[in-house]
Amino acid sequence: WGYNGDGALGDGTLIDSLLPTTVSSLGSGRTAVAIASGKDHVCVLLDNGSVSCWGSNAYVQLGDGTTTDRNTPTQTSSLGTNRTAVAIAAGYGNTCVILDNGSVSCWGYNGNGQLGHGDTTQRGDGANEMGDNLPDTNLWLRDDDTDADVDDSSSLTVTNISHSNVNSGTVASSSTYQSNGTQIVGAYGTL
Fold first, then answer.
1. Is the pLDDT of residue 101 over 60?
2. Less Cβ crowding at N or C end of the chain, within 10 Å?
C-alpha cells in the first residue's frame, strides 16, 4: 500500500492504495523468499535464486537493462553464469545481491561510488553491463574484535547485506573470514 506513481506496488497500476494490495505474478510457480525496497523500487529474491524487481528504474536499479519504470515484477537481466542470489538489499537507486559463491553484485545508481566498483559509473543500462560483465564489488573490512582494518578481502564470504543512506552505500558482513590463516569473527565492510 502507499504511493504508486512509479509502479512500486507492483500491482500493474499506477494508482495509490490505502490498503495492502497483491503484487502481480512473480512467475509461474515462483514464490518470494526475501524482499528489499529502495526509495521508489522493490526487488524480491525468488525461491529459485533469481531476482525480480519493479517500480522506478530511473537509475537502472531494476537490473533489466533499461531505464523503463515497471509496474509489475520484471526479472533482472543476469546475475552471472550459473549464479543465483541468496540475499538482497535495495538502496536509494541501486540494488545489491549476495551470490551463491559469497561474492556481492551491485547495479544502478553509483554517484557516490556506492556500488563498490571503484568509480562513479552507473551500471545496468548498457549492453553487457549485468551478470559476468559487472565489475567486482570491492569490500573494505574491519574486524569487530580488534577494530583493525583487514587488508585482504579475497577470501571473504559475505553472509549479510543491507543498505544505509545514499552517501554511505551498502554494508556487508561476514560471520567468519580467513585472512593469513587467522579467523576473524564479525568482520564487516562498506562497499
1. yes
2. N
